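Whiteboard transcription, Tuesday session. T.W. wrote the structure tokens on the left side:
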């Protein structure tokens, strides 16, 4: 089932704005700690606290001249019941109707794309991917840009488990 998640969109916009904007916008996103290659953050959505964790690729391969920052997010949003929602930002627009392949150890996941973002097919896939991330050491993400450029991003999973526990504690069900 293809679905867009309002929570993930809000987080992605918030992260993007915090990364490129000045202090006024960045102040709405509160750092929540760092473990290995992963960082935790929170922000307010109404009276609720939304938690997410993020990491950037350790290695990026592709024949591109310009690319915006890429990152992966795992989000807990108590307002929507979302827990462990996995999403990726490529730093470029994906080819229309393309998929993204994510390999963690021997497991491979296929994500759907929209513009420069990719998501799992739903909560069951999120749970399976998070479980693989807890047990894995690295993650390889492959996508194709709107211009046909193939990219491969390699992420470290060092610190993933500790950071996931932190956001689960801060944003329980």
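and on the right, the sequence the group agreed on:
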């Amino acid at each position: 089932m293809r679905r867009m998640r309002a929570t993930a969109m809000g987080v992605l916009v918030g992260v993007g704005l915090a990364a490129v904007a000045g202090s006024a916008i960045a102040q709405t996103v509160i750092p929540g700690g760092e473990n290995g290659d992963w960082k935790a953050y929170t922000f307010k959505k109404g009276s609720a606290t939304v938690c997410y964790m993020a990491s950037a690729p350790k290695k990026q391969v592709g024949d591109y001249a310009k690319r915006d920052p890429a990152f992966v997010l795992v989000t807990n949003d108590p307002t929507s019941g979302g827990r462990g929602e996995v999403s990726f930002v490529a730093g470029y627009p994906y080819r229309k109707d393309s998929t993204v392949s994510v390999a963690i150890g021997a497991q491979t996941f296929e994500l759907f794309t929209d513009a420069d973002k990719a998501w799992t097919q739903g909560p069951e896939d999120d749970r399976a991917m998070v479980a693989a991330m807890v047990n894995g050491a690295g993650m390889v993400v492959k996508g194709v840009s709107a211009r046909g450029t193939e990219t491969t991003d390699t992420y470290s999973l060092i610190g993933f488990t500790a950071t996931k526990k932190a956001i689960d504690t801060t944003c329980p069900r």
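Someone added at the bottom: The longest strand covers residues 38-45.
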